[in-house]
Amino acid sequence: MVPPSGSGQRRYPGSLLHIILAAVLVGVAAAGKLPPDIKRCSRSSPQFSSCLRDAVQDTLPKLKHGLPKLGLPPLDPLIVSELRISQGDGPVGLNLVFKDLITTGLVDNDEVYTAEIDLEKLTINASFLFPRAVVTSNYTVNGKVLLLPVTGSGGCKVVLKDCACRWRMQGQRIKKKDGKEYIDVVTTEIKMTPKKMEMQFDNLFNGDPQLGKTMNRVLNDNWELVYNEIGSSFEEAYAEVVRQHTRSLFLHVPLEDLFLK
C-alpha cells in the first residue's frame, strides 16, 4: 500500500467490520463450523478460486445484520469511534478529527471480482466494489485546501460512490499446544479507489453560510485532490484494525478447519 503523505498522529477506530469480509474470504466461523446456508469450497478443487469468489458474493448480504451465534456483529451500520488525520504537506493540509462515524451501504449490492488464497505462502487477496457508502460523523477541522483556510466543527456527511477495493493479508504458520497449525496475521493492506466522493461539512467558519457554502463547493470540485491527500490515512487505519481482528480470529481457528479437503 502506498504510504500516507505527510505525517502526524492517527488514532485507529475502535470497531471496523471489514473483518467480516476477511472472515468470509477464508470460510471462517467459530469452532470451524459454518452455518449450513454458507457455501464452502474444497481446497483441492481446481475451481477453488472461482468457488471462493462465488461464496464471498453469496455470503456478504447475509452478513448485513451480523451472525450473532458466531460472535460477528452487524456490518450495517458500521460504527467507528474516532479517526484522526494530520496532513502537513501538499495542497491539502488538514488537522481533521472524525468522531462517532456511522457508515451504511458497505454490503448493499457489492460485486466481488476476485478472492484468492495461497495456502503455501498464506496470502489472501480480494478485489470488490461497493456502489455507494454513506458516512455520517461529527468533525473538527483546521487547515487549508488549495491555500484557502478552512476551520469548523459540527456534523458532516461523506458519500463514496462506485468504490473499488483491494485487500491483501500476509500470514505465517504457527503451531499451538494442541498440535494444530494456525494463521498468525502479520500484515494487511487495503486500497480504496472511489469514482466519486461527495462531502458536506456543516458549521464551517463558525456557521458563516456563505463561506461554508463556498468551501463545500471547493471541496467537492476538488474531491480527487482531497481524497488523494487523506485517503491513505483511512486505508492505513482500516488495515491495522483488520489485522488486529483477523489475527485474533485466526489464532482461535485451526488451519485444518478453515477449508474442506
From TrEMBL:
Pfam families: JHBP
GO cellular component: extracellular space
Keywords: Biological rhythms, Signal
A GO BP annotation: circadian rhythm
Domain of life of the source: Eukaryota
Signal peptide boundaries: 1-31
Coiled-coil intervals, chain numbering: none
InterPro entries registered for this protein in UniProt: Haemolymph_juvenile_hormone-bd (IPR010562), To_sf (IPR038606)
Recorded family membership: Belongs to the TO family.
Protein name from the UniProt record: Protein takeout
